[in-house]
Amino acid sequence: MDIYEEAELYCAAFDWPLVDEVDWLLAHFPGARTVLEPFCGNARYGPVFTDRGLSYVGFDLAGPMLARAPRGERITVLKADARQFDIPQKPEDGFDLAWCPINSLCHLTAEADVISHLESVKRHLAATGAYVVEIDPCRHDGPWIDPPGTENTWSFPQPDGSEVHARWRREHCDLAARTVIDHASFWRKRDEKVVAEVSHRFTMRMWTCDDLVRITAEAGFDLDDRVFPHKDLIPGPEVRLSRELENTGLNYLFILRPQE
Fold it and tell me: What would the pLDDT profile of 206-255 be if each residue is shown by its tens digit?
């Protein structure tokens, strides 16, 4: 079964607090009043943004995930393909901010699809807007800090007394193709018994810093020299964009601004 068909299990596995991330974004972009989130899933960021006075639009291709998304006066969710999209709810002057957390952009493995996505985002942004993308940059000549066999595990207790567990394991690295295969597994346990389980293999695009500079420029963006490490869900003090960010095992927040 596709992992996104088990939307309840998937959403429970990624149910960590979001307040610190959103507050960080709004501290760095204090004039933002509208936000666009590609790959939004169940749009869990939506209420956090709207609680702070913004209007939120999120989109995704997974219908079961969107079915679990909140609705509200300033929340809009819709089905759209991130590779190329046209959002009818775009503000007249464009969105002030677009936001793409937790390596979601890496699900686009073809370079042409990535460029098309970035061009679509640019069409939807205000001239003074920004696209903030979270990515774990890699150096493709190695050594990789997350080689095959590396895995992360976590769990969340649930209101019904059950517990949802997750395992994210790296299975394969293709340095030449700039891709990895990751195997994600999620299961629910109640009274020590597994009562629901789903797994999925993802092929994901990995990026060097040079890739980011080159591809974002081709899509009509300038990449900020300021980059922010994202550790324990809290962005840290800024560092400078350089190859030293690669293979550190950290995600970083990159800021893309539309070229004039």
Answer: 899 999 999 999 999 999 999 999 877 778 899 999 999 988 888 999 99
Pair (56, 169) in one structural domain:
no
Residue 139 pLDDT > 80: no
Task: Please check whether residues 58 and 185 belong to one and the same domain.
Answer: no
Do 131 and 221 meet the contact criterion of CB atoms below 8 Å apart?
yes
Residue 236: HSE in the Cβ half-sphere, 13 Å Cα cutoff: 9
Q: Verify that 112 and 43 share a domain, yes or no.
A: yes
Q: Look at the block and give the residue holding tokens 């092929």.
A: 203
Q: 59-69: per-residue pLDDT in tens?
A: 999 999 999 99
- If DSSP codes are grouped into helix, strand and coil, which group holds residue 51? helix
Please tell me whether residues 222 and 129 are part of one structural domain: yes
Q: Does one domain contain both 112 and 234?
A: yes
Q: Which two tokens stand for residue 214?
A: 């080159």
Query: Which DSSP symbol is given to 40?
Result: -
**167-171, Cβ contacts within 8 angstroms, sequence gap of 24 or more:** 170/146, 171/201
Q: Which two tokens stand for residue 131?
A: 């696209």
pLDDT for the residue numbered 1:
56
Q: How far is 140 from 160, CA to CA, in rounded Å? A: 44
Q: Say what the pTM is.
A: 0.94
Helix axes 209-218, 111-124, angle to 10 degrees: 60
